[in-house]
Design goal:
zinc; CHFR_Znf-CRD; alpha+beta; Tumour Suppressor Smad4; six-stranded antiparallel β-sheet; flat; five-stranded antiparallel β-sheet; single chain; 22% strand; 21 strands; Herpes Virus-1
């Protein structure tokens, strides 16, 4: 007979998976939370409940990570899993909470497809003709919006229109209404709408060859400021005066740096940090966008061009946008372990107890990350599958990566290596985590489990023997 730790009343829509027993005389265990500790009668003759596994949901929703929480081995699809070990399970996996089949219950892990869950979703009626690109007349692919007219086009289609327009005109006109285009950027909401349309009618999709051609032309990765080619007439000035004038968008508009100088057709993009402009260039090896958040940063670009500082032009330092392998860290990020100071303190003490530094631990886990020894499905960064130690990311994304790696560091650490806490520190830690509305009443001989959710990941550990009630 199974029972999950998420025992509060929930709607059927909250159930994303089930543990179905082999014998109908036992109850199905509904799994609602992203991480669930399951208690069960280990054998048919047992009357006591035992904590025997912890199931953590994966992002793809068709699999999960299971951790053996019992003191003995368990069987998963015939494979033996030791105590505290973790294994990936798929829908249909067989789980036996014991070292053999005889005398132990057998469960089958089943995920519930989204279509079967009673989710309330906003239904939008849309005319297919209004979801088509005004250039190729097909359903949008990697849709972008232009301003100020707010018409929408395929990224590849508009990028090619932009290139040809800048070769022939002083300004870029909207292909649909002929208004002067000043900005262009990706429209993530409409992209999701397109995905729903294609799921409803697959015949509207493009061939792989067409998609590859569009992607090869696509230039817009973040918001672009499209400058006009018109230049105001002004008297002839000395070279130094011309290059430092207020009309220049970026340092390379007036002076050649790194073998490049902007022309009147150059598209500029604003830096997320300093707000300064840099030319959008697709033919260089240095990235101008953070792969983790898709935002534009100028630090690495100006560093590669040999530009340090120029009056009148805001520039970022190289430290604001650099490869993961070149970064260092001396303190745990504030956002680690979902800003839980108690868990951060345990992590910090654990590192010191091992005789190591935070930089040593992060370097080690970056190596594991690079070797794909870590499950990336819940990593809170875009393009998680292609990020490596050589990838340029911004400071915010680096802190998220560090928090993600610290979660796995804590998750993989054996209990006997965790630092011993003073009883008073344990109570303070519990009070901090369960919130102001919960008060620890009496110290009893029962173990309670507290949840910590670092960057979208939920982690549970036994903290202290106590009982509590809502205040």
């Amino acid at each position: 007979m199974g029972e999950s730790s998420a025992s509060k009343p929930c709607l059927e829509a909250d159930i994303w998976a089930k543990l179905v027993p082999a014998h109908s005389m036992y109850s199905v265990v509904d799994i609602r939370s992203n991480e669930t500790v399951v208690y069960s009668e280990i054998s048919c003759s047992s009357e006591n409940k035992h904590e025997w596994c912890k199931i953590t949901r994966s992002l793809n929703q068709s699999s999960a990570m299971i951790q053996n929480k019992s003191s003995s081995t368990i069987l998963i699809d015939g494979a033996t899993v030791q105590s505290e070990d973790i294994m990936l399970i798929q829908s249909g996996s067989e789980i036996i909470p014991g070292p053999d089949r005889e005398g132990h219950l057998s469960y089958r892990f089943e995920t519930i497809p989204t279509a079967e869950r009673c989710e309330k979703r906003l239904k939008i009626s849309i005319d297919i003709e209004n979801a088509k690109c005004g250039i190729c007349l097909n359903i949008w692919h990697d849709v972008i919006s232009v301003a100020p007219c707010l018409h929408n086009f395929c990224n590849g289609c508009f990028s090619e229109w932009l290139r040809r327009s800048q070769e022939r005109r002083a300004t870029v006109l909207c292909p649909q209404c002929r208004a002067v285009v000043q900005f262009a950027g990706k429209n993530h909401f409409l992209r999701e709408v397109v995905e729903d349309i294609l799921q409803a009618d697959t015949s509207l999709g493009r061939s792989k060859e067409d998609v590859a051609i569009l992607d090869s032309h696509a230039l817009i990765q973040s918001n672009l400021v499209i400058s006009s080619g018109r230049k105001r007439k002004r008297p002839h000035l000395a070279v130094d005066e011309q290059t430092s004038g207020p009309d220049l968008s970026c340092p390379q508009c007036g002076t050649e740096y790194g073998g490049f100088r902007c022309n009147q057709d150059t598209v500029h993009i604003p830096c997320q940090v300093c707000g300064g402009m840099m030319p959008s260039r697709s033919n260089i090896s240095v990235p101008q966008h953070c792969l983790g958040c898709n935002r534009a940063f100028c630090g690495a670009y100006w560093h590669s061009q040999g530009v340090a500082r120029i009056d009148g032009h805001p520039l970022c330092t190289y430290d604001s946008f650099r490869p993961i392998m070149e970064r260092s860290i001396s303190s745990i990020p504030f956002t680690a372990h979902e800003t839980n100071r108690y868990e951060q303190d345990i992590t910090e003490r654990s590192i010191r107890q091992l005789g190591r530094t935070l930089q040593d631990v992060i370097s080690e886990w970056i190596g594991k990350f690079d070797n794909r020894e870590i499950d990336r499905s819940r990593m809170p960064l875009n393009h998680a599958d292609v990020i490596t130690a050589a990838t340029h990311i911004c400071n915010d994304c680096y802190n998220k990566l560090v928090s993600f790696l610290l979660y796995w560091f804590r998750f993989s650490m054996p209990k006997y290596l965790l630092p011993r806490m003073h009883p008073r520190e344990k109570i303070v830690g519990m009070d901090m985590h369960v919130g102001r509305s919960t008060t620890v009443r009496n110290m009893l001989g029962k173990e309670i489990t507290f949840a910590v959710q670092p960057e979208g990941l939920i982690h549970r550990r036994r903290v202290v023997s106590a009982s509590y009630q809502s205040g």
